[in-house]
What we know:
Blueprint: H1 3-9, H2 20-47, H3 52-69, E1 76-78, H4 81-91, H5 100-122, H6 134-157, H7 167-176, H8 178-201, H9 207-222, H10 250-282, H11 288-304, E2 311-313, H12 314-322, H13 329-345, H14 354-366, H15 372-380, H16 382-397, H17 403-421, E3 426-431, E4 437-439, E5 452-457, H18 466-479, E6 485-489, H19 498-513, E7 517-521, H20 525-534, H21 536-540, E8 545-546, H22 549-559
Parallel strand pairs: 5-6, 6-7, 7-8
Antiparallel strand pairs: 1-2, 3-4, 3-5
Domain STAS: 450-556
Membrane topology: Multi-pass membrane protein
Organism: Herminiimonas contaminans
Amino acid sequence: xxxxxxxxxxxxxxxxxxxxxxxxxxxxxxxxxxxxxxxxxxxxxxxxxxxxxxxxxxxxxxxxxxxxxxxxxxxxxxxxxxxxxxxxxxxxxxxxxxxxxxxxxxxxxxxxxxxxxxxxxxxxxxxxxxxxxxxxxxxxxxxxxxxxxxxxxxxxxxxxxxxxxxxxxxxxxxxxxxxxxxxxxxxxxxxxxxxxxxxxxxxxxxxxxxxxxxxxxxxxxxxxxxxxxxxxxxxxxxxxxxxxxxxxxxxxxxxxxxxxxxxxxxxxxxxxxxxxxxxxxxxxxxxxxxxxxxxxxxxxxxxxxxxxxxxxxxxxxxxxxxxxxxxxxxxxxxxxxxxxxxxxxxxxxxxxxxxxxxxxxxxxxxxxxxxxxxxxxxxxxxxxxxxxxxxxxxxxxxxxxxxxxxxxxxxxxxxxxxxxxxxxxxxxxxxxxxxxxxxxxxxxxxxxxxxxxxxxxxxxxxxxxxxxxxxxxxxxxxxxxxxxxxxxxxxxxxxxxxxxxxxxxxxxxxxxxxxxxxxxxxxxxxxxxxxxxxxxxxxxxxxxxxxxxxxxxxxxxxxx
Length: 560
């Protein structure tokens, strides 16, 4: 195998050789991200309904695999809020959170999602992620942000059954034992306020690390757990248990497949956004198919590590860049921080309040809100705005099966796309003062020549648009019996299929029956090749085909 082939299968061999200066910068950035990642990983594990230790598992091996086989040097791969919420939503109807069955299902979900992404990348199908259009992303992310924040409210205020129990019983229990809610709320809202203040006054300071240390220390000092308030508790120490997942019923496999497909598309869209920002700021290229391979392998590694699906984190990627990282080595230093915490520091998180974890989730998620995007969509396209709103509503209503919001959005996007392309722009054109063919109605132009109808279609000529073109021309000719020549300007047609060819053949026959001659101008090469192979060029005749619109204008005026 040649060196080229080796680097194709092992892209990390293309990394530039590090220097002492670059390693120093990467070490500082990696440690900064790693210290933030540790409490975030635990927080996102709870959001996914998983044991706290699995968050650290998901932050270790998957982050290394993702950067080794990915294409974006500074993308931080690991637990992410949106992906964790999708995991929770996908598994909620199937098992109880944090149970053995739940963990097993999450592992299988991670493996399936990873396989889907890997196959998409291996077969160079990265552009399929574009099925999740911007309106769908806007609708889903805003709905997901609301759901995530609402899901953390019970832990934030110390009322775990806030949305599931009878409100009267909840109020009575709070009245009978107010200390739990008061203590939990004090830690939760105190953390929120402290994080906001730090972000405003000291944006470069790792506020997440500070509140984690401070919250854990104060919890131990005041006896937080003794009041009955929830803490993280024991976290399994040591390396993740690399093993194949336990068997589950075939019905569960089938339920996971659809969830895995949606999760694969959404999580890669999330990672892709980070890659684009990083590439723009660093002025470097990235390969979406190679990134899919890296993300897929990272998810599979997370499942085999006993954890849940991971994704690219925008906030940690931004921190990585902000802290001065120069290469992918920074991620390896972050992974060392996670490894060190798993082996030596897991016990230190024992007293960390769950309300602090809730706050650690809420603050970054709050940045996902962008309701102004809906207003912008209305200004650009009412159809796209409708897609975003439907996605938003269905995601909220379908809770916990959040993926139905994405499915509804993608379906509506396809329907809207097909409808728009079934209504192509077909206009009568005439010569403008600048010598080009323009819209006769818009510029109030007379006909190109007496008895001549010049028509332009601004779309591909295919099974969606063919009948509309034929209907337009036949209608115009039927309403004006003076028309004896039809000029079809196809310079805007970039593609034609069998239905499009059949449309032109049928149109030619129909016009001949009416005593009208058909002409064509400015045919693009790819369209010409199809028409030539179909025999239409020969049937129409060289004297009825013009290479340019200008040539057609002169010829039509001679015919008049």
